[in-house]
Amino acid sequence: MTDTGWTPDQPLVSIRDVHKSFGELEVLKGVSLDVMKGEVICVIGPSGSGKSTLIRCVNALNPINSGSILVEGQEVNDPHLDKLELRKKVGMVFQQYNLFPHKTALENIMMAPLKVLKQPREEVEERSRALIKRVNLVGKENNYPGELSGGQQQRVAIARSLAMDPDVMLFDEVTAALDPETVNEVLLAIKDLAQRGMTCILVTHEMGFAREVADHIYFTDRGIIVEHGPPATFFSDAKDPRTKEFLSQIL
Amino acid sequence: MKPGNRQKRILQGSTDLAVLKPFRYSAAGGAYDLQFSRWLADFSPWHLLLLMLAACLWPGIVLAQSGYTTAQAMDALWRWLPFLVSKGFLLNLIVSFLTMLIGTLAGVLLGLGQISPLRPLARLCWFLTQLFRNSPWLVLLFIVMLSFPFEITIGDTVYPIPDWIKAVFGLALPIMANISEIVRGAIQSVPTGQWEAAESLAYTRQQTLWLVILPQCFKRMIPPWMNWYAILTMATPLISLLGVEEIVTLSRQAMEAEDNHPELLVPFFGFALVIFFAYCYPIARYTLRLEKRFAVKG
């Protein structure tokens, strides 16, 4: 890994004036935000406001058109970026879980540390079993994703990402595809993670959850951040009319 | 309508030839392109038997004055039968095995080439696939037969290349192209979320392909692959036109040896039909069964 001169007192993720277009459709029109180590931030906003695109840019799943994204001082918007090194530091959980259907829950979790990080099997297995316990799935190790409920699959996906021991986790509307009764178990797993000091960027529609766990909330609309603040003030004294309208519809 | 749309519609809609369309899988993972197996599997074996019996009577009625009876013709067939099977049909099978082996290996490489991130390589593989998929088999066979040397010299030894080996390579070209399409279609039928999840876990492209994507599409490639095996086996008599001594060539030689009585035609060629049917029919049935099983599981 190249030495970037990054120190933990600087933002772990620093997004500056990011623009992103899909063809003629500009989805991000100059977004900036900082995430400090150990911070949990939530990005909320109406559908199509660019929030998912924003976090997909952080681990270079989507390339950006202009601006800068620094992860631990490493520039993501750099043609010579070592994407593999970046993705070892940035974990991601998807709305559709995207577990590998031909592998069991435990294999899903162990595969990347074994094949990508080339860590010894015993060590990986021990860590993976501990993660299974942490996301409360003991007994499901040998089940295939198709045999698990949505909430269980999503918790496996969280464990799979954690097995790589990332420095920051991205959550892309991870409860949006779940049945209402399984949403809570996934949120609990994320909350546990946040309390252990994991840096998290969440895109979510769960306002109550955002209020509870977030250190900072960003509200995006039509490709820009229109308002942000800590949950205490964000929900009570929103100034922007669009934020107010959105909150009044949701809360 | 935008010109792009129109062109797309023309490209998709102007042909009824399934082979000209890109190979497709359904959302459940099943292949759409199993017409041949469906057609063959829908056959009742009894229909064929009845047809055979009726056909045997036909020349007997028309040409009764010649003095050579259908019974004599069947007798001749009975005498030649072990020879036709052990020397003729066996070669058809060997050709089909070898062709499938070479066609599959080359087809997998070509199919992987089609999805390569290297654009020129992907275009080249796409072009080769389309070229060989849409060329008449017989033309490909003739090209290979006439352009391949009849012997090769390695060191001081001269190895003759028998015609049937050349025929294998000629038939392997269209098989390769169709397997290439099966592989490309199967890989592209895996949801993009699988690629993204693997990418996010820092898998390289190679690792993603071999550890995540290909294991998932292996099952869905089997039914269309078997479908092509049945088509290929049915097509092996083509090589009789090039003088390879497979079942049709030997049948003609046998009939000549039996003085070319017209009554021999239906029993001898009818036997070839029956033996191909008996071999390919179970394959077609099994193909459809696998197709159903894999599609349900998804």
In quaternary terms, these chains amount to heterodimer
- Tally of domains of chain B: 1
- Give the name of the CATH superfamily of chain B: MetI-like
* Helix count from the secondary structure assignment of chain A: 9
Average pLDDT for all residues of chain A:
91
Largest sheet of chain A: 6 strands, mixed
Kindly summarize this structure in a few lines.
The complex is a heterodimer of chains A (251) and B (298). With 251 residues, chain A is an alpha/beta fold.
Helix-strand layout with pairing:
The complex is a heterodimer of chains A (251) and B (298).
Chain A: E1 13-22, E2 25-35, E3 40-44, H1 51-58, E4 66-71, E5 74-75, H2 83-89, E6 90-93, H3 105-115, H4 121-134, H5 150-162, E7 168-172, H6 180-195, E8 199-203, H7 207-213, E9 216-221, E10 224-229, H8 231-236, H9 241-250
Parallel strand pairs in A: 3-8, 3-9, 6-7, 7-8
Antiparallel strand pairs in A: 1-2, 1-4, 4-5, 9-10
Helix pairs in contact in A: 3-4, 3-5, 4-5, 5-6
Chain B: H1 3-13, H2 35-42, H3 45-62, H4 70-114, H5 119-133, H6 137-147, E1 151-154, E2 157-160, H7 163-188, H8 192-200, H9 205-235, H10 247-257, H11 265-297
Helix pairs in contact in B: 2-11, 3-11, 4-5, 4-7, 4-10, 4-11, 5-7, 6-7, 7-9, 8-9, 9-11, 10-11
